[in-house]
Amino acid sequence: MSKLTKNQKIAYAKIEPNKAYKLGEAAALLKEITFTKFDASVDIDVRLGVDPRKANQMVRGVVTLPHGTGKVVRVLVLCTPEKEAEAQAAGADFVGLDEYVDKIKSGWTDVDVIICTPNVMGKVGALGRILGPRGLMPNPKTGTVTMEVGKAVQDVKAGKIDFKVDKYGIVHTSIGKVSFTAEQIEENAKEVMSTIIKLKPSAAKGTYVQSIYLSTTMSPGVQVDPKSVETK
Fold first, then answer.
1. For residue 107, is it left (φ>0), alpha (ψ between -120 and 50) or beta?
2. Shortest CA distance to 41 belongs to which of 222, 228, 214, 229?
3. Which residues, 6 or more positions from 195, have their beta carbon under 8 angstroms from its beta carbon?
4. What is the distance between the alpha carbons of residues 24 and 227, in angstroms, rounded to a whole number?
5. Which of 9, 72, 154, 181 has the fewest Cβ atoms within 10 Å of its own Cβ atom?
6. Contact 187, 42 (CB under 8 A)
7. What are the DSSP calls for 9-53, one per residue?
8. How would you label 101-115 residue by residue, b for 16+ Cβ within 10 Å and e otherwise?
9. CB-based contacts of 181: which residues, under 8 Å, 6+ apart?
10. Domains along the chain?
11. Helix count (H) and strand count (E) of the chain?
12. Which long-range contacts (C-beta less than 8 Å, at least 24 apart) are formed by 165-168?
């Protein structure tokens, strides 16, 4: 096992073993134990009491973070010509159809979100093998297949994210940057947790939210007391 660096030792020393912190305390602690020279991402990991292999226990949702993600989100809109001006006016980074379909087929995926109109899904669907594994495939459930491309672009740029429980029953997503205030991190985390709790499958038995951890790109995880994020 590799030796801990000086900063890692400081970080671990600040975390009480086996303690589940209140959400606000955990958010503040993250800022104390992150020593990166860059603006690290803040992530939340939520272990759920579900079996993702069963369709009636799948948890997937969309949430708009009150304080955004802190990231520059590159958006590609695939649409027919009559929708191009709307997409460009809303701030899309790339707009078009056939030229981008060909670029993607050649391996180009230098974007964070792809939005398309329903009438081009025939062409976009053929890109599933490339876009699917990268989490870029447009989906009506996440609002990325829509005729309202302008609104969709604005929502994504404003901090709209989608999440999905993985095969281990964990939801993992970024909720901001370490440069955010502790209050901003806490409020973004609460918004995500509120949505996850509302999405509890009726087929899920036992404890639904089993554990919550906050971490940054290179920090240890800080355990959060699930009771501190309960919504009424």
1. left
2. 214
3. 61, 62, 63
4. 12
5. 72
6. no
7. HHHHHHSPTT--B-HHHHHHHHHHS---SS--EEEEEEEES--TT
8. beebeeeeeebbbbb
9. none
10. 19-69+160-229 (3.30.190.20), 75-157 (3.40.50.790)
11. 8, 9
12. 165/48, 165/50, 165/52, 165/58, 165/59, 165/60, 166/52, 167/52, 167/53, 168/47, 168/52
Three-class secondary structure of residue 224 per DSSP: strand
Classify residue 230 by its DSSP letter. Answer: -
Kindly state the tokens that stand for 196. Answer: 């996850």
If you average pLDDT over residues 124-132, what whole number do you get? 94
pLDDT value of position 1: 44
Alpha carbon distance 17, 6 (integer Å) = 19
DSSP SS3 for 174 = strand
Confidence of residue 217 (pLDDT cuts 50, 70, 90): confident
Q: What is the DSSP letter of 116?
A: E
Q: What is the pLDDT of residues 42-101, one digit of tens each?
A: 999 999 999 999 999 999 999 999 999 998 899 999 999 999 999 999 999 999 999 999
Whether the predicted model's global pTM rises above the 0.85 cut:
no
Confidence of residue 5 (pLDDT cuts 50, 70, 90): confident
| C-alpha R_g of the chain | 19
Place of tokens 């095969």: 167
User: Strand 94-96 relative to strand 75-78: parallel, antiparallel, unpaired?
Assistant: parallel
Copy the structure tokens of residue 63. Answer: 């949430």
| SS3 letters across 119-146 | HHHHHHHCCHHHHHHHCCCCCHHHCCEC
